[in-house]
Every structure is written in structure tokens, then in C-alpha cells.
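User: Second chain of the day. Same drill as before.
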Amino acid sequence: MKEVFLHYLWRFQKFDRKGLRTTAGTHLQVIHPGILNAGAGPDFLNAQIHLAGLLWSGSVEIHLQASDWYRHQHQNDDRYDNVILHVVWEADASVLLPSGEPLRTLLLSEFVSPQQLTHYQKTFLQPSHFIACEESMQRFSEADWSLWKERLFIERMESRIFAIESLRKDLNNDWEAVLFVLLAKAFGLNQNGVAFQKMALQTDFKIIRKIRSVSDGLEALLMGQAGLLNTVTQDPYALQLTKQYDYFKQKFNFQTPLGVHCTFARLRPPNFPTLRLAQLAQLFVKHESLLEAFMECKTPDYAFQLFEIQLPSYWEKHYNFGAESARVQKKISRNFFELVAVNALLPIRFAYAHQQHKKEAEKIFEWAQLLAAEQNETIKKFKALGVTIDHAGASQALLHLKKNYCDSKRCLSCNVGFQLMKN
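Assistant: Same format as last time:
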């Protein structure tokens, strides 16, 4: 039994409401179950009930066991002083109010049918290989999925706002610096994302603005800050960057960041950290205000044009320092751009609009529908269950669903789970 199931039963009044009585035998009628509280304090606010002919207004608290009231220390929290009803599955203790009177308690287990309980247990509490409802998911319609995926995508974007806002404050309200940090993490992908992010956070964006016009200057700075110039031997280009980086360290009086460790392991050459940082550097060399240019883009196609950069000729025959390869022009591919767009560009556009009190959720979802869906194990498993995932908005939505609903067994807060319980 999960407490979230009790929340579902109470919120939607999915129990036998005839002949309701408290554990003390007092007749009970629910006028309004209240509003689910997502923050601290009682579970439901502004509820209304009739008890023995009197109308009571206040909060409702829900527990699996009545003794959870004391286990959670509610008796010492004045936010619970206006609780008018304690809804429990098991009445294993008598709970007293500060006045010494017993707290009115509804033993919900007496009013839920065995069939409903069995349905819940079979649908959500059986061991699963991937998600709890995987054997029943086909009963959730394509139309319902479409609406739910859009809502999940917006939830995912909203969940990024706090982190981006915090980053903006740390960077003195410099949105261009925020974009640099987000892009650095995205360019590092899974293997080097954290290392690139640390490098970006410890690199003063004011210096980037000052040296972006210096030939090879920004590339030298990023390579040095990421620790990629530390082990270079006699490669002339690498030595040139090292000399440039040492000059910047002395001129601007900064130290090489600690704890930045880039890896080449299990990476295809196009994703080597050396090449990705060279591309990132040229992106900020090309655009004096990349954020402003991006915010003016009407579609992802226009945004992709911003990422059309020209690397120094050295990189045509190299993926890493000192190791020559066949001559290939190292452009930013459309696939890589779309990964960056999903993980950096769309979140900052959403957060920037939110900070400007503009509503762009629908437009950003339209953008996401024009980007290819990500390919990973989670997405493959949802596809195997018959879920349509034909664009990045859908894949982002399902990644959010898996992490924030399925993994934490919030089945009855999910539209899929809610519909399955109705059926």
C-alpha cells in the first residue's frame, strides 16, 4: 500500500461515501475534499465536511497509519493545528489535538471495495521490468498521450527554471554567461558534460568577451581551463595555444580550475573534448551576442545557421593534439545541434521568457516538435510498449515521466495511472 493511493482515493472521492462515519462513530459527509497541497503542511487545504450536522472548514491530513502523525512530528508543527480530519488506512493509535481532544479520524480502509484495492495492486504494485503499468499501458489512448506528453514537456522545462535562475544570479544577471555555461555542458555530452560545466563556471565570461577577437585566443583559454594543454608534448599548434594560455593567466591573474577532468574513453573522434571545445570557442568568436541572435530566431533551422562555424585549418586533419587523421571539415552536425538545442537552447529560451514574464511554452513545444527525438535505452523501452515518440518534445516528456513519476511510483499523479484506475 502506498500513501499516494490514499491521496488519489480522497482527492477524487473514490470510495463508498454512503454511511461514512469517523472512528468515534460520528456521521460524516464530505462537502469538498480540499485542494492538494504540493508544499509543506497538511496534504489537503480548504476542505469542508459535515460532522454531526456542523460544517467544518480546514485541512485534511492523510497517513497509512494513524501513528504516522506522531512519527512525522505533526504535534509540534502549528501548520497542522487546523486539521479537521485525519484520513488513515490503519487506525493504530489515537491522535490528540493540542486541546487534548481526539483528532477526528476516518478509517478509509472500511469504505474501499476489495475489487478497487485488487485493481490498484495488480496495476501498480506488481514487480515490473521497466515501469509499473507496462502491461496495461496500451489502454491509454493516443489522444490522451498527445495531451499528456505536451504537459510533461512543459513540466520538464519548468523544472529547469530554478537551476537556470540560480545560475543567472551567480553570474550577476549575465544571460550571455548563463548560455555559455549551458552550452559548455551540452557540448560535453554525457561523458564530459560535468567537466565542461565546471570549466565554464570557473572561467570569467568577462575574459571571454575581452579575448574573443584574439586569434586562437578563446580556443587557448578553453583548452587550458579544461586541462587539455597539460600533457601536450611537441605538437606545434598545441604549443602555440599553451603559450597563449600562459600569457592570459599572467595578464588576467587567474588559476587553472581544479577538479576538471576530461575523458576520451569510449568516445567517437567527432566527440573528443578537444574538438568540441574548439567548436564551442569558435561559436562565441563568431557571435558577439549569441543569446540575442538566438532569441531572434523564428525556427530551429534559423538557429542551426548560427552554429555554422569555421574551425582553424589545424582541425581539418586532427581530432586531438599531435595525432593526424584524414582531412575532414569538422562542422557541427544537425544531429549534434539538435541535442544541444534540447539540452541548452530550449531551456534557456523558456527560462528567459519566464524571467521577462512572457508566455512562450506553446512556441517552445512547437520548436521541440521540429527536432528529432533522442535515442537512448529509456526511449527505446517506451517505444517497445507502443508509445509514439516522433520528436524531441515527446522524448523529453517521456524522460521526465520516467524520472519523476515512474521511478518514484507516483502512478496516481500520472495521467496514465489515473486513466487506468478509472478503467
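Strands lie at 28-32, 35-36, 44-51, 54-65, 83-90, 105-107, 318-320, 323-324.

User: Great, on to the next one.
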